[in-house]
């Protein structure tokens, strides 16, 4: 297979890599051996060395064994980016459990679905999440509930003040911790700090990562230790200027999201870097952390970079430590990219991936050539091609739009207990992404849009990203998204939802006239709705389906 992208690689990025045949948890053991006293984690001034982190992971692994957890059992982790999340993740992997990362925003119904499907008998969660877990205990396989508190991870002064803060925010709970409810700190205190005896191999299942997937219904993506080892190392080699033991990762992208897990947490541990943990994205707090802690790497999503670009008094914060950022989980619009690079002096590039690929498959070169609007080049050891959506055996020519399919050692084993769904997207080792894309002569790929997001108006195909790129060029627009709405005459019409920058104003006519100068008439939105914010996931991906559901309800009411 021809691979035109190889000629566009940065000089030090390898075409292929020799990966160690080890489980993912070996990353932590190796870093603790090389840099025992280096800070592995930093959380509001509380620092954890690699030596201590390894000891804590061992203790947690042995605590799980003491509760009767066996190799292959699923252990759910419902935590934000706090030290206990890293400890629970690596500890569970060290004793051979399969981790199930659970969104901390899930309500009881969603928790029940995930626990029942995965068969998880153990969950690790923050204490104030317990009211959402308790109602489903009798409806799921859950037997062990291990609770922890943000307070346990804070330095002593903040720890003293935490109860008052938690009480004000409605997050202070007194929970009686008797079996099956356990206190994580107490469990670890009574567990051995020696490595667990359980042997874990690279081929063992490491993770069930739940996703809407390429066909819309929540499924558990089965990722092995090798899948995750490979992808972390692929990400590391894509950034050849990074130095072992010297980088500092701003860890605000949630670890329960596979992008934050692989490209931030796992890669940082592999590189013996410091993870500067942020439990959630609050723009001012993140700016303070950058100003004070001087991170060099900032993995994020466009919404985070937009928030920073538009923050008042941004000049009061020193952001010059930032060397490189990769934006994932959605498109990065050029205006956002250029403004962020101007504000920090660092490099911000777009990458691409999906849970089924651990997740990274493509990224733009950090210091080399990058093409506007591109998701970049396939990373080392990754193949990609564009196929016809009707006949997937037909590979399309350069520049033609079709479905992106990818292949590589980071591709999932399959969907948990869903052979039919697996066969639908995995064919001869090729993962069918469901994304419409094209490739140029230099091997750069461009996502045109999701197949399901494509808008069909007056017989023409319109891809939302193309329209959104233009909307972001309007100087007063802070955020924008477009969707296709049913229309009796056109099939669908284009509607744009706009968030304007603070202290600015614009009319619908202003926006439409701007678009008319830059888009073919059939691509120009027919209607504009101004909003103060757009519905988004916890990591900042716009929820088009929420907007569409709102519109469908309006149509039903009219009918």
Brief summary of the model shown:
This protein is α/β, with parallel strands linked by helices.
How would you explain this protein's 3D organization?
This protein is α/β, with parallel strands linked by helices and 559 residues long. Among the domains are: 167 residues, Rossmann fold, CATH 3.40.50; 105 residues, ANL, C-terminal domain (GMP Synthetase, Chain A, domain 3), CATH 3.30.300.30. 30% of the residues lie in helices and 24% in strands. It has 16 helices and 27 strands. Strands 7-6-5-3-4-8-9-19 form an eight-stranded mixed beta sheet, with helices on both faces. Helix 1 packs antiparallel against helix 2. The longest helix has 17 residues. It is globular and about 70 Å long.
Keywords:
559 residues; alpha/beta; Rossmann fold; GMP Synthetase, Chain A, domain 3; eight-stranded mixed β-sheet; globular
């Amino acid at each position: 297979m021809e691979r035109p992208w190889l000629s566009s690689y940065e000089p030090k990025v390898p075409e292929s890599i020799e990966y160690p045949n080890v489980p993912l948890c070996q990353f932590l053991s190796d870093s603790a051996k090389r840099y025992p006293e280096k800070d592995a984690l930093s959380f509001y001034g509380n620092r954890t060395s690699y030596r201590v982190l390894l000891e804590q992971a061992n203790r947690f692994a042995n605590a799980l064994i003491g509760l009767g957890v066996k190799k292959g059992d699923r252990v759910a982790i419902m935590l934000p980016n706090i030290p206990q999340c890293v400890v629970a993740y690596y500890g569970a992997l060290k004793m051979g459990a399969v981790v199930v990362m659970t969104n901390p925003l899930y309500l009881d119904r969603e928790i029940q679905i995930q626990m029942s499907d995965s068969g998880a008998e153990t969950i690790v969660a923050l204490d104030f999440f317990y009211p959402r877990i308790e109602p489903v205990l009798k409806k799921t396989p859950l037997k062990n509930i291990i609770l922890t508190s943000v307070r346990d991870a804070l330095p002593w002064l903040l720890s003293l003040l935490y109860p008052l803060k938690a009480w004000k925010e409605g997050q202070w709970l007194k929970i009686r911790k008797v079996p099956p409810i356990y206190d994580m700190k107490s469990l670890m205190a009574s567990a051995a700090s020696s490595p667990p005896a359980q042997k874990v191999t690279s081929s063992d299942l490491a993770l069930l990562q739940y996703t809407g997937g390429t066909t819309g219904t929540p499924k558990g993506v089965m990722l092995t230790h090798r899948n995750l080892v490979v992808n972390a190392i692929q990400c590391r080699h894509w950034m050849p200027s990074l130095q072992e033991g010297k980088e500092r990762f701003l860890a605000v992208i949630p670890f329960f999201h596979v992008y934050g897990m692989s490209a931030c947490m796992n890669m940082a541990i592999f590189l013996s870097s410091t993870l500067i943990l942020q439990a959630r994205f609050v723009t001012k707090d993140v700016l303070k952390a950058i100003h004070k802690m001087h991170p060099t790497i900032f993995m994020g999503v466009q919404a985070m970079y937009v928030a920073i670009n538009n923050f008042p008094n941004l000049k009061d914060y020193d952001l010059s430590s930032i060397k490189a950022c990769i934006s994932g989980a959605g498109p990065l619009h050029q205006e956002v990219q250029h403004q962020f690079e101007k504000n920090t002096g660092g490099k911000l590039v777009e990458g691409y991936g999906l849970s089924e690929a651990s997740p990274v498959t493509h990224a733009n070169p950090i210091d080399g050539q990058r093409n506007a609007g591109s998701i970049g080049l396939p990373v080392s050891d990754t193949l990609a091609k564009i196929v016809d959506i009707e006949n997937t055996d037909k590979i399309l020519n350069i520049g033609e739009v079709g479905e992106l399919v990818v292949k590589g050692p980071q591709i999932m084993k399959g969907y948990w207990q869903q052979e039919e769904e697996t066969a639908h997207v995995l064919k001869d080792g090729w993962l069918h992404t469901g994304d419409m894309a094209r490739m140029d002569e230099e091997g750069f790929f461009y996502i045109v849009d999701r197949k399901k997001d494509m808008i069909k108006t007056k017989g023409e195909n319109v891809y939302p990203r193309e329209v959104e790129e233009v909307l972001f060029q309007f100087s007063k627009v802070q955020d924008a998204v477009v969707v296709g709405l049913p229309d009796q005459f056109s099939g669908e019409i284009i509607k744009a939802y706009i968030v304007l920058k603070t202290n600015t104003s614009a009319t619908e006519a202003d926006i439409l006239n701007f678009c008319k100068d830059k888009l073919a008439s059939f691509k120009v939105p027919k209607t504009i709705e101004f909003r103060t914010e757009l519905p988004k996931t916890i990591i900042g991906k716009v929820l088009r389906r929420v907007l569409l559901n709102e519109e469908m309800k309006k149509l039903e009411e009219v009918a």
